């Protein structure tokens, strides 16, 4: 797969179809893979893909990063099937011009839940994935059979157990979890669909969300963000993986994905 990926990247750069290929490369810590921006055809050998390629690179297509039309005009981006869903979401919302980017889908049988996980371990998102072979991409690298489309969302056992608790128990759970939020906004930075160029949390005239890391501010920020992603979250789990204090943010997103699936028959 890596040989084919490198050949494709070289062809795109050499032909001028792309002025940068955004993919994955090896990290100095062998357990990790890091995003890489390849602009020289001679450097395509740096591109890799395996189960340690965790980042959702569709985030770089987000207007917040100001890469498209500023740093690069014709990017090509390596995307797992779940990542490609985020790119489709940006296109649906007119946040991304499909003619300005080349989407390179890579067949993926699953990734690790975190860089420190044991080989072969899989997160919940991979267990319910319906796009191990990417759809809606200009190119597909690798060979896996196409999965049946997901028609009904099934949350994880932990999310289902939380939903069975009483309202008071759920409130106590989230009060304890959100009290640890330090308002670093790593969840926002990692999310490919947090696409507001000026976030509500950064607005101070008027100030909708208190900026301090106290209970009111933490609840306001995390609940508002969850609702802004309702019907849009593609379940990549990057917000939770990026959280430095380990708040299970994806449980909120899973619940809202289930509600949207049941009430509107739609799964992002």
TrEMBL record:
A Pfam family it matches: Fer4_8
Matches recorded under SUPFAM superfamilies: alpha-helical ferredoxin
Ranges of residues in domain 4Fe-4S ferredoxin-type: 224-254
Record's signal peptide: none
Source species, domain of life: Bacteria
Keyword Iron-sulfur: yes
InterPro entries: 4Fe4S_Fe-S-bd (IPR017896), 4Fe4S_Fe_S_CS (IPR017900), Helical_ferredxn (IPR009051)
UniProt keywords, alphabetically: Iron, Iron-sulfur, Metal-binding
PROSITE patterns named among the record's database cross-references: 4FE4S_FER_1 (PS00198), 4FE4S_FER_2 (PS51379)
UniProt key word NADP: no
MF terms (GO), sorted A to Z: iron-sulfur cluster binding; metal ion binding
Name the record gives this protein: 4Fe-4S ferredoxin-type domain-containing protein
Species per Swiss-Prot/TrEMBL record: Candidatus Coatesbacteria bacterium RBG_13_66_14
């Amino acid at each position: 797969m890596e040989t084919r990926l490198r050949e494709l990247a070289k062809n795109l750069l050499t032909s001028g179809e792309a002025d940068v290929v955004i993919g994955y490369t090896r990290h100095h810590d062998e357990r990790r893979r890091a995003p890489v921006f390849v602009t020289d055809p001679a450097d395509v050998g740096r591109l890799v893909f395996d189960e340690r390629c965790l980042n959702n690179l569709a985030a770089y297509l987000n207007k917040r990063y100001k890469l498209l039309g500023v740093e690069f005009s014709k990017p090509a981006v390596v995307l797992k099937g779940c990542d490609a869903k985020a790119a489709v979401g940006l296109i649906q919302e007119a946040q991304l011009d499909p003619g300005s980017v080349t989407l390179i889908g890579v067949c993926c049988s699953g990734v690790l839940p975190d860089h420190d996980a044991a080989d072969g371990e899989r997160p919940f998102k991979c267990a319910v994935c319906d796009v191990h072979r990417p759809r809606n991409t200009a190119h597909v690298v690798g060979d896996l059979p196409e999965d049946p489309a997901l028609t009904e969302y099934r949350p994880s056992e932990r999310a289902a157990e939380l939903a069975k608790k009483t309202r008071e128990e759920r409130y106590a759970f989230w009060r304890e979890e959100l009290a640890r939020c330090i308002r670093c906004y790593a969840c926002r930075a990692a999310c490919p669909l947090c696409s507001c160029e000026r976030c509500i949390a950064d607005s101070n005239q008027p100030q909708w969300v208190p900026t301090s890391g106290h209970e009111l501010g933490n609840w306001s920020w995390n609940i508002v963000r969850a609702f802004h992603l309702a019907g849009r979250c593609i379940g990549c789990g990057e917000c939770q993986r990026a959280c430095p204090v380990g708040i299970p943010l994806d449980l909120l997103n899973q619940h809202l994905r289930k509600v949207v699936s049941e009430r509107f028959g739609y799964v992002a």
